[in-house]
Amino acid sequence: MALMINNSITTLNLEGNALGAEGIGYIQKMMEDNDSILDINVASNGLQGKGAERIAAMLQKNKTINVLNISDNGFVDADAACLAKAVENHPCLSAVNFSNNNFGDLSAQYFSHMLAENSCLQEVNLSWNHFRGKGAQALGRGLAENVSVKVLNLSWNGFEDEGASAMGKALGQNGVLQELDISCNRLSPQGFLEILKVLSKNDTLETLRVGKNNISDAGAELAIDLLKKMTNINLKLLDLSDVILGNAINPRIEEMQSVHPELQFTYGYTDSYGKRKLRSYDMVTEAIEIMQACCAQQGMTLVEMFAKFDADGSMSVTHDEFREGIKEAKIPLTALHVDKLIESLDQDGDGEIDFSELVIGAEEKGGARGSAKPKSSPRVSETNSTKDTTNDATGDTTNDATDDTTNDATDDTINASENDHANDLTVAT
């Protein structure tokens, strides 16, 4: 009753409250008269079939909801018709999360029609369901016709190469999608390449996640060679997390980045204190590590090496002086390594690298403070553990971006997830 007359709360989080069909029925009735709540999370509430009908009825009545999370509710193929149709006809929904349910190929046709017909959705999460090759083909047809979705998460299904081919064809026709996640879909190197080869026809996709698939070193090398031949792609991140590749791939990545300097290639993993970290090949990090290794072998610090570059004692060097110093010190860096290093270190863009910029760069990229531990070889190309970075820039978005809603207990948010009870709901001030 309180929420029926409240017009300041905009976010309602009831995740994990065992609402069931009866509980969601009360939410349905409340939402028929509420036009201020824009973000609803009713994930993990065991809604099942009857609950699906009530969610659909709620969407038919309430036309102001922007974000809806109905993941992990035991929905099956029979529930897809009413849910997908309600989303398809909704004029304001921008993000919907169907993940962690039991939707399969039989329901794919409904989601396909939803994608083709709705022009408001921007984020759709269908991960952790049971779509196989035929389902992927149906979803691909919907994606090809979609005009609004920017983020699509289809990870943890079972597309195999048949589904990969369908996604490739869809990308060749779609002109809006910016991020696609098809991680863990049983793709072979051939399926991976089927998707990549259409990127020359797609100028919007910026992030492609294909990790946890069966992609070999040879497949990754072919993919890199293919990308090098494409001159007009918009891709910024190719994420192969949990795909383990040998160090021999690094020179090929370097060659590719000379053609596409903005493209980040992420692969592999390590377990650090139980936490998995992505490994991203970073040319600047590698260059600093090589410099540190050379310093260690010569018994000096980076600061002392910099002093040799700085002939006039001004505590700064020009770009040309830096290049000449690297050459004279016989540091085994390629010209591209040096260019990328200069670009990164000259933070104020004044055409010179000063002492402070070098120290800051070493701390951020090399993890050192003007000194380095000795390494066995100046050419740093160890196993995955040497160049691990937490993928903060991309945030592993799609699994998290579409799953999560703003749960902060502010004056416009109700958070009653997990252990909270409906009768304990309060508005924090």
TrEMBL record:
The keyword tRNA processing does not apply. It comes from the Eukaryota. One of its GO terms (molecular function) is calcium ion binding. Keywords: Calcium. Residues 364-429 are annotated as: Disordered. Residues 297-332, 333-368 form the EF-hand domain. Residues 391-400 have a biased composition (Low complexity). InterPro entries: EF-hand-dom_pair (IPR011992), EF_Hand_1_Ca_BS (IPR018247), EF_hand_dom (IPR002048), Leu-rich_rpt (IPR001611), LRR-containing (IPR052394), LRR_dom_sf (IPR032675). Residues 401-411 have a biased composition (Acidic residues). Residues 378-387 have a biased composition (Polar residues). CDD domains: EFh. The keyword Ribosomal protein does not apply. It holds the Pfam family EF-hand_7. PANTHER family: F-BOX DOMAIN-CONTAINING PROTEIN-RELATED, LEUCINE RICH REPEAT FAMILY PROTEIN. This is EF-hand domain-containing protein. It comes from Littorina saxatilis.
